[in-house]
Design a protein that fits this description.
Belongs to the FPG family. The structure is a single chain. By secondary structure, the protein is an alpha+beta fold. It folds into two domains: about 5-155, N-terminal domain of MutM-like DNA repair proteins (Alpha-Beta Barrel); about 170-295, Helicase, Ruva Protein, domain 3, CATH 1.10.8.50. About 25% of the residues lie in helices and about 25% in strands. The chain has six helices and eleven strands. The protein has helices spanning about 5-20, 40-50, 170-180, 185-190, 200-205, 220-240, and strands spanning about 20-30, 55-60, 60-65, 75-80, 85-90, 100-110, 115-120, 125-135, 150, 280-285, 290-295. About 45% of the residues are buried. The chain binds a DNA duplex through loops.
Length: about 300
DNA sequence: ACGTTTGCCTGCTAGC
DNA sequence: TGCTAGCAGGCAAACG
């Protein structure tokens, strides 16, 4: 389940291979991978063919490759979202098809030669699109990986993520204060703060000792500050460990799993002892998914 | 056969 | 009356 740390691992892995390369060929094996592309599959292919890649950028869980744009205005990007099970893999040219392979790009790099960039996705919630770039609202860089104050239009409504230097802590606190919804739902709302999914929401709330159903507006200033500190800590630790992998669904660009699953304190640990107090971690249905928390050290209200 | 997982969309309400 | 923001529920798809 790729969230910010997993997507950043993918971006960082892609960056040295694709920046400076030219897209030499595009194969669309399954059109469902292009559901977010406005235009036909042929249009997608035509817009990418021959284009040079100048940067690999990420905001929250969105990833985009800036495309060189001598004559094209506004400038464009190849934007991707991995959804639940999407993978971007670097392979040798002519490498055998991946299981659930949807799109393959052939790239040519002046220093590294030819390479295949493969988009594979079991559940097809992920997608790729060629998208126009728009100026950022605050004039700051669009995301990690580029200084350009541009963001892919499909990611323009997505808030900055908590590891973004331009993330506005005060605006985050004001946003929580306006919302009566459960804090967990608000953390999962990518227009409030991006990059957090079910795993890191549960982990950050556990670390901050906040019950997932606490109304966001009921949190004290101090609790909000603690929560933000813990969100950043868990995201950074997961990033350092290469992300969280439970199965083959999340891997880096070389197909390798991450190690953060060993560091989880709450997520997926229902019935096991809370590492802090020894009480049993509880799992509850919430928003069509599961919340994992310690009822003893994350008291409601 | 059903539960699991994700972001996003839709339709509703409240308030200015 | 019309707009916006907040809100909650439900959807898509594949796999075990």
């Amino acid at each position: 389940m790729p969230e910010l740390p997993e997507v950043e691992v993918v971006r960082a892995g892609l960056e040295p291979a694709v920046v400076g390369s030219t897209i030499a060929g595009v194969e669309v094996l399954d059109g469902r991978a292009l559901t977010r592309h406005v235009g036909s599959h042929d249009d997608f292919t035509a817009r990418l063919s021959g284009r040079a890649v100048t940067a690999a950028v990420r905001r929250g869980k969105f990833l985009w490759l800036l495309l060189e744009s001598a004559a094209i205005e506004p400038a464009e990007a190849l934007i991707g979202h991995l959804g639940m099970s999407g993978q971007l893999l670097l392979r040798a040219p002519g490498a055998p098809r991946e299981r659930h392979e949807r799109v393959r790009l052939a790239i040519d790099h002046p220093a590294h030669g030819e390479l295949a960039v493969v988009f594979a996705d079991q559940r097809t919630f992920g997608s790729l699109a060629v998208d126009a770039l728009v100026p950022t609202a605050d004039g700051a860089p669009g995301g990690w990986g580029s200084d350009a104050p541009l963001v892919a239009s499909q990611a323009a409504h997505i808030a900055r993520d908590p590891l973004d230097p331009a993330f506005d802590d005060a605006a985050f606190a004001r946003g929580l204060g306006r919302r009566a919804s459960a804090i967990k739902r608000v953390l999962l709302d990518q227009t409030v703060v991006s990059g957090i999914g079910n795993i890191y929401a549960d982990e950050a709330l556990w670390a901050a000792r906040i019950h997932p159903e606490t109304p966001a507006s009921a949190l004290s200033t101090r609790a909000v500050r603690t929560l933000l500190v813990e969100i950043r800590a868990v995201l950074q630790k997961a990033l350092a460990e290469g992300g969280t992998s439970f199965d083959a669904q999340y891997v880096n660009v070389n197909g390798q799993a991450g190690y953060f699953a060993h560091s989880l304190n709450a997520y997926g640990r229902h019935g096991q002892p809370c590492p802090r107090c020894g009480g049993a971690i509880r799992r509850e249905a919430f928003m069509n998914r599961s919340s994992h928390y310690c009822p003893r050290c994350q008291r409601k209200r």
